[in-house]
Design a protein that fits this description.
NADP; 37% helix; D-isomer_2_OHA_DH_cat_dom; Rossmann fold; hydroxypyruvate reductase [NAD(P)H] activity; 16% strand; alpha/beta; D-isomer_DH_NAD-bd; oxidoreductase
Length: 316
């Protein structure tokens, strides 16, 4: 930890909220890596003096980058997901990592449930129907109710529990899948993901990304969800076999999907754009003014506590 009277040198990997950037600049010396015309030259010239990385779930932190910073002590990330940060490398290098859990649970759960309602009731499709003038030619097709249906949640962490509460408020049954059952929740547990998919009308993905969950939802799981089932993904695009999802939707073997995340963002498969039973949003799960400010505040709190006390508020 730097001496109290020093201004620690931070390396910011990519752009963040302007207010957070201003706060960091006012208290620390900050190198803005993404703006450097020659990043390798910047790292060669100043990398040995960097003591912390400031990044996000989008920009992450690779082993290669961290290894170029011999004095690196900490990584501060804006976002709850940390699959883009090489945690194993950080441990090997003796670098601590923080993220921003808790403060974004409600907004991400709101996004999940908005997608669920939209794809079930055809809200976006109905909007297009009216705008095209199709209402003059006939009525919009009937859609699916929520009450009495089963909401299957994959990953019953804080966000998953927030989604479950919303589902209950709409009269839905809740079931879940995870590494192990949670004794303090009243929902039915399925040890096998395929069994949950068979039981669910809506399969909501709320689990971490990374190698352990890569393409966890594959053709087999989509087939179990079936032609009257809907997939909702507010987790990571990597947890779904995207070509298998496209194939299932095109074949009609899956009822529909609500997707906030994709395998190669911001690229979205052209086939999905053509489907009226798919709702697409641009990874906006936590995208409200209030939540993004709370995330920024928590990043700053982690930075300040680390340099004052050598501890993190929310360590990974």
């Amino acid at each position: 930890m730097p001496e109290q009277n020093e201004r620690p040198l931070l390396l910011q990997v990519g752009p963040l909220l302007p207010a957070l950037q201003d706060a960091l600049n006012s208290r620390h010396e900050v190198l803005r890596l993404w703006e450097a015309p020659d990043q390798a030259a910047l790292l060669a010239a100043r990398g040995r003096d960097v003591v912390a990385l400031v990044t996000s779930g989008v920009h992450g932190a690779t082993r290669e980058l961290m290894s170029t910073l011999p004095g690196l002590q900490a990584v501060f990330s804006f976002g709850v997901g940390y699959d883009s940060i090489d945690i194993a490398a950080a441990r090997d290098l003796g670098v601590v990592v923080s993220n921003t859990p808790g403060v974004l649970d409600d907004c991400v759960a709101d996004t999940a449930f908005a997608l669920l309602i939209d794809v079930a009731r055809g809200i976006s499709a109905a909007d297009r129907f009216v705008r095209r003038g199709d209402w003059r030619q006939g009525k919009f097709p009937l859609t699916s109710r929520l009450a009495g249906k089963t909401c299957g949640i994959v990953g019953l962490g804080n966000i998953g529990k927030s989604i479950a509460r919303r589902a209950e408020a709409f009269g839905m049954e809740v079931a879940y899948h995870g590494r192990q059952p949670q004794p303090d929740v009243p929902y039915r547990y399925h040890a096998e993901l395929e069994d949950l998919a068979k039981a669910a009308d809506f399969l909501v993905l709320s689990l971490p990304g990374g190698p352990a969950t890569d393409k966890l939802v594959d053709a087999r799981i989509l087939a179990a969800l079936g032609p009257h089932g809907y997939l909702i993904n507010i987790a990571r695009g990597s947890v779904v076999d995207e070509p298998a999802l496209v194939a299932a939707l095109q074949a009609g073997s899956l009822g529909g999907a609500g997707l906030d995340v994709f395998a190669e963002e911001p690229e979205v498969p052209a086939a999905l754009l053509a489907l009226d039973n798919v709702v697409l949003t641009p990874h906006l799960g936590s995208g409200t003014h209030e939540t993004r400010q709370a995330m920024a505040d928590l990043v700053l709190a982690n930075v300040e506590r680390y340099f004052a006390e050598g501890r993190l508020v929310t360590p990974v």
